[in-house]
Amino acid sequence: MKQAITNLIEQRISANQFDTTKKISVSEIQELVRLATRAPSAFNFQNWKFIAVHTAEAKERLKAVAYGQQKIADASVTFIICGTLAPHQSLSRALQPSLKTGLLDQAMHDSWVAMATAGYAENPQRQRDEAIRSASMATMNLMLAAQGMGMISGPMIGFDPAGVAKEFNLTDNDVPAMLLAVGYPAPGNWPQKPRLPVDQVLSIV
Questions:
Q1: Residue 93: half-sphere exposure toward Cβ, Cα within 13 Å
Q2: Record's family (predicted)?
């Protein structure tokens, strides 16, 4: 297992060229998102939202608000991955499965809801920071899930957030963090680009 996850991380690329003849099924999209939602989030907020842009018509609408990036049309699916604001308001609902299985008791549930409300209710910057954090961690899970299923992916920050929100009916609480094109490779993708040496980015204290 250690070797398997190492290989996935080292082989993952940020793809631009997708095979337009190969499609991803709805069940595969659902499985990718199921695995994405295994990412961690503060208080188990699960403050994320996924829109799978799968049809040709929807891809063209997204492409129009993402600076015409062709990979949106060529990929089998492009996800709009959002973090959500005011996560404290839906925390009790998010914790219900943990409460029902006995992983959390009522006192701990109530304590978490109270702490989250105190920490986020009057702090819009913290809410936004948390939305971006959660969406980003879920996106990384989604990329590795795609890699593990034999697919490739390409994350994108080049889009008009207001245009995406309007075109795909996002709410005021939805923060589009990034787009992620997913599909199968066509020729022309770069390999993973070299990274800085560990000793330039790591301090051990």
A1: 6
A2: Belongs to the nitroreductase family.
Token pair, residue 174, equals 């939805």
Rounded Cα distance between 23 and 19, Å, is: 9
Q: Which pLDDT belongs to residue 162?
A: 98
Domain topology for 20-185 = NADH Oxidase (3.40.109)
Q: Please, what's the b/e burial string for 21-35 (b: 16 or more CB within 10 A of its CB; e: otherwise)?
A: eeebeeebbeebbeb
Report whether 174 contacts 82 (CB < 8 A).
Answer: yes
Q: Residue 148 carries which side chain, given as an amino acid letter?
A: G
Q: What share of the chain is helix, strand, coil (3-state, %, to 5)?
A: 50, 15, 35
pLDDT of residue 1: 54
Inter-axis angle of helices 124-148 and 2-11, nearest 10:
100
Name which of 142, 183, 177 is nearest 37 in CA terms.
142
Q: Count of CB atoms within 10 A of residue 59's CB?
A: 21
Mean pLDDT to the nearest integer, 63-92:
98
Q: Are strands 174-183 and 77-84 parallel, antiparallel or unpaired?
A: antiparallel
How many whole angstroms separate alpha carbon 186 and alpha carbon 188? Answer: 7
> Residue 77 in 3-state DSSP?
strand
Cross-sheet strand order for the sheet of 174-183: 48-53, 77-84, 174-183, 152-156
How far apart, in whole angstroms, are the C-alpha atoms of residue 51 and residue 33?
A: 10
